Amino acid sequence: MDDWLIQALFTLATGLLLSIVTAILTVRLSLHQFYSQRWWEKKQDQYEKILVALYHIRHIDDKLLASVGVGKDLKPERKEALLAKSHEGSEEIERMVSIGAFAISKEALDSLKRLRAGFDSIRNRINEMSYYEYLEKHITYTDDCISEIIAIGRRELKVD
């Protein structure tokens, strides 16, 4: 074979090898980025669910506290609907405490556990306080948890 043919084949083989390596690396990096983005979205979705659940609990507590504050009870249908929504929020928090460790940080999980423990502690002492005091404490625990979850979520999702 002529030298120029060997040189041309060598150049072609080098270019082909370089193209294959580049393609493999590009695919691997793209897949890594894709999976990282999907995982970020999964975490963001979990934090959003937690915050929506906490919002429902907080919103209902506000409505109940306002009605107790003015000494006027809510209509039974309205109160039942609010309590059902609050119950949904509480169930979502329980679900996160049970299975959330997969997608949320230990710190966020600990915050939800503190919230649950706080709710349990005031529920166990409900006979020792007025309904107004009970709601105030419930709101305090919820507000603390909301603040913590927002801060943890921002840090974990690298937002801001």
Task: Briefly summarize what is shown.
By secondary structure, this protein is mainly alpha-helical. The protein is 86% helix and 0% strand.
SSE inventory with pairings:
Elements: H1 3-69, H2 76-99, H3 106-124, H4 131-157
Helix pairs in contact: 1-2, 1-4, 2-3, 3-4
Estimate percent helicity. Answer: over 70%
Give me the strand/helix succession. HHHH
Mean pLDDT: 89
Helix/strand class:
mainly alpha
Number of strands: 0
Q: What would you report as the Rg, rounded to the nearest angstrom? A: 28 Å
Tell me the number of structural domains: 1
Number of helices: 4
Low-confidence stretches: none
**Principal-axis shape:** rod-shaped
Largest sheet: none
Beta-strand proportion: under 5%
Distance between the termini: 64 Å
Keywords:
160 residues
Descriptive account of the structure:
This protein has 160 residues and is mostly helical. It has one domain. Helix 1 packs antiparallel against helix 2, helix 2 crosses helix 3 and helix 3 packs antiparallel against helix 4. The protein starts with a helix and ends with a helix. The model has no long low-confidence stretch (mean pLDDT 89).
